[in-house]
Amino acid sequence: MTPYVTAGVDESDESLAAAHWAAREALRRGAALRLVHAWTGRQAPEPSVPLDTTRPDEAEETLQWAVRSVRAAHPGLEAAGRLESGSPVTVLLAAAEDADVLVLGSRGLGRVAGFVVGSVSQRVIARSTHPVVLVRAGDTCADEHLPPLDGVSPEEIPETPFREVVLGLGTRHPASGPVEFAFEAARRRDTALRVVHAVPGVAHGADGRVGPESAAQPPAEREHLVADRLSPWYERFPSVPVTLTITADRPATELVRASAHASLVVVGRGAPDARLGPRIGSVAHAVLHHVCCPVAVVPE
């Protein structure tokens, strides 16, 4: 079965950025690209649509606009569009089922402020059983790489080394989904992986400062424990350099800080709560709202 990277597209700039990120990811994976556009099935045209244009025609043109754009940028990539009738959340969740990863766009608030996460993105991220990557509007190929040397042309950007991949590691035994996704992402980019782990038992006051409980968890001991838990992954991915960051700060704070120098941030998403239903989780939610690079949310 042909592996797919799937991106949800609409008329927005952020959707086009997601489509191009998905195209680059498909090439890294040796996969095909599938662009999906959800058509709500309304028969009456919007007021801005010419009278001789039907809503399905407009939806098809939106889809083909994105397909033409990625094909022009990546002539060797197998890229196809698929128009689906239904609510965006339902269509995207179904599309994610047969994809290695689903890529969505979100309007960025700038290099510091991060994303605006809409209700569709949030609901898809909370319910998807497959990894979902969120890409800011304005994200480009150059943003994934270290600053190029003087005299390097835009066409040579892919030859410039990638920025590192950052993984947020929980306090319990590392869930295999997010860890494997992060190691694979670093291996495909031939770059380093930074693992960020918050010391458990650390108390934060109302002002965000760390309380004395942190003394009970010496960073050196915690680093040794985390390294021991990650040792099977070191053996599976010997070519990936790994740096551990043990923080007494809030995990989201350190992940946002690390994202300034990252090509991708990977966080886990816990299982749905029996009482509350699907949820993203506080760390993933904070990261999605504040980082300045693409974020992969991987179900644990």
CATH fold group of the largest domain: Rossmann fold
What amount of the residues lies in strands? 15-25%
Main sheet strand line-up: 3-2-1-4-5-10-9-6-7-8
Specify the CATH class of the largest domain: Alpha Beta
Question: How would you portray this structure in words?
Answer:
With 300 residues, the chain is α/β, with parallel strands linked by helices. The protein folds into two domains: 128 residues, HUPs (Rossmann fold, 3-Layer(aba) Sandwich), CATH 3.40.50; 161 residues, HUPs (Rossmann fold, 3-Layer(aba) Sandwich), CATH 3.40.50.620. Helix content is 35%, strand content 21%. The chain has eight helices and ten strands. Strands 3-2-1-4-5-10-9-6-7-8 form a ten-stranded mixed sheet, with helices on both faces. Helix 2 links the parallel strand 2 and strand 3. Helix 1 crosses helix 2 and helix 3 runs parallel beside helix 4. The longest helix is centred in the first third of the chain and has 19 residues. The chain starts with a strand and ends with a strand. 39% of the residues are buried.
Features:
300 residues, Rossmann fold, 10-stranded mixed sheet
What topology does this entry show?
Layout (H helix, E strand, L loop, with lengths): L3 E5 L4 H17 L2 E8 L15 H19 L5 E7 L2 H10 L3 E6 L12 H9 L4 E5 L27 E6 L6 H14 L3 E6 L20 H18 L5 E6 L3 H9 L2 E8 L12 H9 L4 E5 L1
Parallel strand pairs: 1-2, 1-4, 2-3, 4-5, 6-7, 6-9, 7-8, 9-10
Antiparallel strand pairs: 5-10
